Amino acid sequence: MEFHHVMEAAGVLVLGLVFYSYSSKWFAPGAWPGPRWRHAANGLAFGTLAVVLMISRIEVGKGVFIDARAVPVALVALIEGWPAGLVAGLVAIAYRLWLGGPGAFAGVVGLLGTVLVGALAHVWARRDGRTTVRHALALALATYLVAVVSFAVLGARGFAMFRPVAVPFLVMSLVGIGLGAHLFRDVVESRAAEVARREAAELRAVTLLARAAAHEINNPLMIVAGGLSILAKRLPAGSEEVRWAERARDGAGRIRDIVGRMNEITRVEEVPPQGSLPPMLDIRKSSDGA
């Protein structure tokens, strides 16, 4: 086995990890330009890595070669889901069809099967709350079985081709997908932790500001409310001035309710965008359930 080709394949996967660490920041959830662009960018990147791995084949015996094209396709489907996995798979399929040859159909079957098992593993991992070792190993074994099926499409000739590469394929799937999934999970979890820290800091800043503002508003508000009560008692009953004083007291009561909610903010909820108005804190939603 030519180990420098193995190192090249490992370097390609590390390059994918570096790219994903940046793309997860560029296409953060909830930010522009949205999930479609995120899936397209990651799919194109990992599809390109699959093409590079097809070009950089690994010789496991004299005249016997394998490549790790399935690894980046399976990883991006596991981490990002079927849209990114499908884009990556289609990029790799386009290159495989361009190469042609009698094994092209089997190669297409293998790549499509890899996208499918990667997407199923993604759904399984999301249901469990995070990607774990069992998800990665299950995907590695499923990817290996997909490779077996793709060779079986060629019949007896395919089995003869697969026999000398069966063990290297298994090792490559277990190591590449298992280790790769662990590294990519670290990127995802570190990104989630960073988002959680930022949200916690934002909530702390909002609550501190809201409580300080509530305190400053409440002091003069008590003076205004007390003054209005005294004024209403001294005005002639039923007069227009009394009605205006009562309306002012109702307004002061509404301000007092808002001040109370400002002291009970537990999360940050924004008012839905309206025209050219800038984003604003929804005090009612932000304090519900406090």
Helix content: over 70%
Overall CATH architecture of the largest domain: Orthogonal Bundle
Q: Quick check: average pLDDT?
A: 81
Alpha plus pi helix count: 10
Number of domains: 2
Q: For this structure, what is the CATH class of the largest domain? A: Mainly Alpha
Radius of gyration: 31 Å
Distance between the termini: 64 Å
Number of strands: 2
Name the structural class.
mainly alpha
Residue ranges: pLDDT <50 for 5 or more in a row? none
* Oligomeric state of the chains present here: single chain
Largest sheet report: 2 strands, antiparallel
SSE succession: HHEEHHHHHHHH
β-sheet strand percentage: under 5%
What report would you give on this structure?
With 290 residues, this protein is mainly α. The protein is 77% helix and 2% strand. The protein is built from ten helices and two strands. Strands 1-2 form a two-stranded antiparallel ribbon. Strand 1 and strand 2 (64-66) form a beta hairpin. The longest helix is centred in the C-terminal third of the chain and has 69 residues, at 166-234. The chain is rod-shaped and about 110 Å long.
Key words describing this protein structure:
mainly alpha; Arp2/3 complex 21 kDa subunit ARPC3; Helix Hairpins; 2 domains; two-stranded antiparallel ribbon; 10 helices; 2% strand
Topology record:
Layout: H1 3-26, H2 35-55, E1 58-61, E2 64-66, H3 70-80, H4 82-99, H5 104-128, H6 133-152, H7 156-162, H8 166-234, H9 240-262, H10 283-287
Antiparallel strand pairs: 1-2
Helix pairs in contact: 1-2, 1-8, 2-3, 2-4, 3-4, 3-5, 3-6, 3-8, 4-5, 5-6, 6-7, 6-8, 8-9
